[in-house]
Amino acid sequence: MSTHQRIGEFLLRRLREIGTSHVFGVPGDYNMAFLEQIEADPDLTWVGTCNELNAAYAADGHARGGRPGVLLTTYGVGCLSALNGVAGAYCEHIPLIHLSGSPPLHATRDGLRLHHSLLDGGYRNVHRAFAEFTAYSETITPQTAVEVIDHALLTAHRTRRPVRLELPSDLSHVEITVPTTILDVATTSGVASASREAAAVLSGALAEARRPLLVVDLPAIRRGLMPAIEAFCAAHGVPYTCTVPAAHTADPDAPLYLGLLPGSGRAQQAFAAADLLISCELTETDVTTAGFTLDYADRPHVRLSADAVQSGTEVYYGTDTADVLAATPTATATAPEPPPAPEPPEVPEPDAPLTQRAVFDALAGFLGPDDVLVAETGTAGQNTSGLQLPHGLRYVNQTSWGSIGFALPALLGAALAEPQRRHVLCVGDGSFQVTAQELSTILRLGLTPVIVLLDNRGYTIERAIMGAKSPYNDVAAWRYTDLPRAFGADEHSLLLRSCRTGAELAAAFDAASHQASDGSRRFTLIRVHLDPLDMTPATEGVGEMTRVFDYGVKAPANPLG
Length: 561
Known about the structure:
The protein is of the alpha/beta class and 561 residues long. The strands form four sheets. The chain has a seven-stranded mixed sheet with strand order 11-10-9-12-13-14-15, sandwiched between helices. Strands 3-2-4-5-7-6 form a six-stranded parallel sheet, sandwiched between helices. Strands 17-16-18-19-21-20 form a six-stranded parallel sheet, sandwiched between helices.
């Protein structure tokens, strides 16, 4: 069955069908006719951001909350402003959908030299720029609109990568013939024969192993495989660990879960002793291998990826990881040793200056199982990834791409995706200054996150690598608690604290915890003053490893004392 619909309205219909609720972006003179259609749609909300890069970060954060992340820019300048955010979504396996208004179709076909272009008559250059950072990038035309739109949305869902569509400015209101059927992005059911064959191989490898270990990486989490992994490990008695990018996705109280690899002593001991490694969607990077010190090639290894299973030189294509795990015959299970008691949190003296260790321990005690914790790259991400946090908490961190400034706009998108949850942002002052203007959007929309801002007057993670006392790692000393007022917030809607001691931080978290949950919660900003050279051992260790790896054994010394 088919009907007639305008191209822009059909695109919005498809976005609604896959679960879109918000579109993030900046208006421009090639996307405004389509924006009129968004404004007329009662089921979609337009969220205008301060710039396109922040819009991309917000769409990324929205997608991590389970809803498709949709970004809208204008052509050329808008697209390229968002490119870093789209690239980060590609690296982090986020199905971001980038829509770009583009010049009229007749103008691009005639090669007219228009503003926002390179004035050379060519209009494929932006597609080429995005080719390395998207799974699909194409221009919508009246003849191909249905196929191009459907293919893009299916590709984003199934690859967990960004896609990009250009909608020429003169086409959004053109009527075309479209199907009446709903776009179904669900994968087909049923276990393929390749999955059964791979399950038999995995079963044979398990039968020969005495000390197997399963390693879970981020792509497996993005595809929702953790329940299947946990069921498999429980059935077979296989201990498992998560890489740092997959932090806070496993049940920390599960008896077979060993913690992060690298990071957890139990996980690292199990890795060293394992006579069979089973990896789920593993990408061996400097982050997942502790600077390439974890060797996956020196023992039997069964690799489960999105569409294949490899054991030695044998590769089984067309598999589904959940099916392979479920079809593997059950073996006798042997539980690992119970975990050691966690190190007790540091309790600062009430009047003593705060340390990073004390702040992160206090943050762990503040967080609850229904919270969403957004942690910026650098010291915030490094030190929150290894905390003992409640199961059920959702953790957002751009671990591998690591673009500073990501977290604040991502907080905006995450909060709109799951408004029923409390959102907490942990961010350093250097990263905050990159995208601080998006605080105005958060306040304009009446969102009420808790922001814990680490004010140590610069880039502490960079100080750990090099230039511990160098001015290039300094940032301007802002009056951070004045910013919400400068962005137009009413005083009664704010909870602002500036903390230098343990007593002040405890009082701030106590005030934030006791806010009512009936809609009267206030926007909260807790500024934490820290010494620029105060670091946890984790930060110091990562800094030294990075210094040697990046700059060589003859690199300048970096005395932190």
